[in-house]
Amino acid sequence: MDKIKILIVMLICFNSNLFSQNEPVVLSKVDTTSIKVGEQINYQLSLTVDTISLVALEFSKFNLPFELINEDEWDTVRFENKFNIKKNFSLTSFDPGTFSLKFPKIIINDVLFYSDSILIDVLNVKVDTVSKKFFDIKNIIEVNKNNEGWWKNYLIICIVIFMFILFWKLYKRVLNSKLEKEKIQPPLERAINALHLLESSNLKEQLEYKLYYSKLTEIVKSFLEEEVSLDAIESTTDELINKLELLKDAGKLSLSNETINNFKGVLKTADLVKFAKSNPGNEIAFSDKKVLENVLLDTKEAIPAPSEEELLKNKEYLEQIKNQKKNRLIKLFFGISSGLILVSLIFSIMIFGWQDVKDNVIGNSTKKLLTQDWTVSTYGAFPITISSPDALIRVLETENQKFEWGSLSSSINIIINIKPSDKEKKTDPQQLMDDLIFSLKEIGAENILTKQEEFFLENGLSAIKFLGSFDYSTNSGTQIKKEYSSISFNQQGGVQNVQIIFDRNNNYAKQISNKVEESIKFENQ
After folding, report:
1. Which has more pLDDT, 224 or 175?
2. How far apart are CA 70 and CA 58, in angstroms?
3. Cis peptide before 429, with omega less than 30 degrees from 0?
4. Are 504 and 482 within 8 A, CB to CB?
5. Phi, psi at residue 230, to the nearest 5°?
6. Given the DSSP bridges, would you call strands 118-123 and 34-36 parallel, antiparallel or unpaired?
């Protein structure tokens, strides 16, 4: 009885251990609690649960200001009757401060759990704006394009292409010469040579005889079609013999009956070989070849001499052939010339650029102004001398003088303003700039940018120079980017101002502007 009681107690204890569940364990940790703005935090979430537990994670994103960079797959390890589940996250924050980091909701067996909160210090990045010395933005420096050695690779490519074309032309010429020789060879000679090339001594099998006689009759029939203008290849033996007899009766072909009968005998033998699978033997095969050779010679002699009309037609035909060859040569010449021009154009564009090639081949009006002979003139009562593509025209004759060449709608516009100087009033650069901007606005300039710099002539005379850019709208509504330079002198008892306006995207206009500025001088200085 006591043994039974002990057994019951042990069973109860065993069942209670079997069906009981331990509390889940939720752990979280980070590799650091202090980062700089934008640095990475490695966050790990660890769950320890029974094997029969149901786990659900309500995970959308971490609490602000933390942002998720990357997350790894779940790592699950089983030991005894439990699971250890881990997951790693990479986080960052772009807001400085101290923030609490915790994982969103964790539901285990319909019970809500939270991970421990971890305080993270996000430190700001110090930006040094005082200790370092700042400098003005440097001007754009024009650098000449380095073309040294550019031609070597292109020269090699050109040589390779030229050699390929040369070898190809030579190959085609040799091939064409062989074909021409074959074409020039007379039909009789060509037919007899073809007969001589046929081997009749080593024929053994029926198929060899069939091929031999097929080629034998084909040679003779081709000769008849070419020389006698007779439809021979598509004719049967009887049809071909009938046609020869008709030509003989009509006096167009003076063949003997013996020749016709010999030819007919060979054709009959050929028909037996081809259709009745006959094997005539090597001796008969060789003899038939000799017979056909005589038939060719007799047929050639039997052809009557051509009449004057036929000779005339033949002459016209030869003339036509000559003209065709001449036309082919002309087409070949133009084809090669066009190819060379096209290749040269492509290489020129690759080396110098489309704009330079277009300007040199098609032409550019502004480039023409730059390269033509310029005019050197002196202007105004307080004279200033400049060189320009053409003489400036006087447009204002008062105490103040104005000379102009070109207009705003053209690629370049040169203006000279001259007036007496006020010796009591000192030149104010700011006032000059204000006057310049006001004058540009009067002519329709928009989005005006300007800067000031010193300008020196070759003899050392200094001046105030303003340069910049603006947008200009034409009457058609097209907006053009313009650049300008305005140089003011105080010489010869007067104030001289040289103003140059040119298209911003026109390199030749820029060169004209520089050339005009370099040409400024005062005669008595």
Report:
1. 224
2. 17
3. no
4. yes
5. -115, 135
6. parallel
**DSSP assigned state of 462:** E
Work out the average pLDDT over 510-520.
90
Lowest mean pLDDT among 55-64, 89-98, 265-274: 55-64
> DSSP letter string over 137-181?
PPPPPP-----TTHHHHHHHHHHHHHHHHHHHHHHHHHHHHHHHH
Q: Across-strand partners of 450?
A: 468
CA distance 326 to 458: 65
Find the length of the chain.
525
Does the pTM surpass 0.70? The reply is no
Cα separation, 183 vs 187, whole angstroms: 9
Residue located via tokens 């007036």: 419
DSSP assignment letter at 33: S
Q: Please state, in angstroms and rounded to a whole number, the distance separating the CA atoms of residues 426 and 435.
A: 15
Radius of gyration of the chain from its Cα atoms, rounded to whole angstroms:
52
- Please check whether residue 103 is in contact with residue 28, taking contact to mean a CB–CB distance below 8 angstroms: yes
Please count the other Cβ atoms lying within 10 Å of the Cβ belonging to residue 172.
10
Q: How far apart are the first and last CA of the chain?
A: 141
What are the CB-based long-range contacts (under 8 Å, 24+) for 471-476?
471/445, 471/446, 471/447, 472/408, 472/443, 472/444, 472/445, 472/446, 473/444, 473/446, 474/409
Instruction: Write the single-letter amino acid at 163.
Output: M
| Consecutive H or E run containing 267 | helix 257-275
Nearest to 503 by CA among 436, 414, 412, 404: 412
pLDDT band at 305 (very low <50, low <70, confident <90, very high): low
In angstroms, rounded to a whole number, what is the distance separating the alpha carbons of residues 55 and 46? 12
Opening angle at CA 127, ends 124 and 132, nearest 5: 165
Region 324-346 average pLDDT: 76
Reference 359, options 351, 350, 368; nearest CA is 368
Top mean-pLDDT range of 85-89, 282-286, 304-308, 483-487: 483-487
Residue indicated by tokens 């606005």: 441
Nearest to 190 by CA among 161, 220, 214: 220
Highest mean pLDDT among 116-120, 250-254, 336-340, 413-417: 413-417
**Residue 459: both structure tokens together:** 């003899």
What lies within 8 Å, CB to CB, of 216 at 6+ separation is 195, 198, 266, 270, 288, 289, 292
| Tens-place pLDDT, residues 380-391 | 888 888 999 988
Containing 25, the helix (H) or strand (E) segment is strand 25-30
Using alpha carbons, select from 329, 291, 296, 131 the residue that is nearest to residue 200: 291
Mean pLDDT along residues 219-223: 84
